[in-house]
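Notebook entry, structure prediction.
Reason for the run: the old model in the group folder had no record of what sequence produced it. Starting over properly, with the input documented here first.
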Amino acid sequence: MQHEACELILVRHAPALTGGRLCGRVDVPADLQDTAALARTAQALHHVRHVVTSPAQRCRQTAAALFPALDPPADPRLWEQDFGVEDGLPYADLPDLGPLPLDVLAARQPDGGESFAQMVARVGPALQALALRGGSVAVIAHAGTARAGLALATGCVPAALAFEIAPLSLTRLRAYDGGFSVICTNLPA
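New structure, fully documented this time:
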């Protein structure tokens, strides 16, 4: 059965007020002071038909700033990666992961958390379900969520970790029967 073409627009939330700490599942607010950037992002999303968010406060606040007339649903599968015991640690106290090859990094699971590969397995079904809606769908979520979408599109989970995803940037994916293609990534509005 042929579905209407769908574009998933993965929007990273506005800058998070992390206090210098790793905040995957730590629920922190968004910094919404850059009203010009929010206005540009809202304008870039004026055509979307559906909006969904991660349940994180920073995502819900960003969605409210971008779509003030809507109360979009939150899907818990869109949460950022669970960094377990490392979540909430100051950046200076985190292990140096820079030297790790991407395949090792994608499989790395902090104690009590999940690996990026596990996150992709969690996020994938949510993005695939959203693609069935047709039209343009905005997903207000996290850098990890956008990278998970890129992993689905490229078919390579480790390679998705090489993409940078800035706050309020757009990662656009085209859904087609059997998968996704990348239109663009990390596009500032």
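Summary: Strands lie at 6-12, 50-53, 135-141, 169-176, 179-188.
The old model has been moved to the deprecated folder.
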